[in-house]
Amino acid sequence: MYQRILLKLSGEALMGSNSDNSRVLNKDVVFNLANQVKELVNLNKEVGIVIGGGNIFRGRYSEEFSIMKAPADYMGMVATIFNSLAFKAVLDAINVESVVMSAISINQVCEPYYYLKALSHLNKKRVVIFAGGTGNPYFSTDTAAALRASEINADIILMAKNGVDGVYDKDPRKNKDYKMYKKITYKEILDKGLEVVDSSCITLCKENKTSLIVFNVATENAIIDIVKGEDIGTFIGE
Hints:
The chain has about 240 residues and is α/β, with parallel strands linked by helices. Helices cover about 35% and strands about 20% of the residues.
């Protein structure tokens, strides 16, 4: 169904069920995700990955630490670089060729992001990990995923959420009468104010006709099953 895939992983997803917040990465979770990426490569898929930084720092912590919003967002972007380098190291360990491209210049450890170079890597079946968000404050890594997916002409965004099976009509933690959508349009997401995905991300996907599937990262083998056509999570599109 999908040949070129943009996988969005939240930073929190990489923590798994770690109760010790000093461990920002859960080895079992990271290796499980990396092995699913390896299987995608073995299926001859082209894979780009955007990883969040919420396991380390989130821009919304700015008020708590009395930090202005812009520098707080840059701190979050640096956190995504840490996670991207860690994920690449695990891919290296399981013999998957990959490259980290950063929207923020840090040439000692990452290539600078340029979409044509990213396309060249993808065509050579290298996994491309897009770090540093969009490179600008005030934009989430969900929006970065939509932007990179548009630039590389991805067939689908697989948006892995931590503890969320898909898109709900209301918060299931607060309401017993919630329902989960199996399919929903961009317009419905925006009109209903559903917040599982940032509105700027949805708007960008709508403009570029990029479909998304929102699913629970903890669902066993979910990434592979979705690519093979299993009905998992919520499809967002036209």
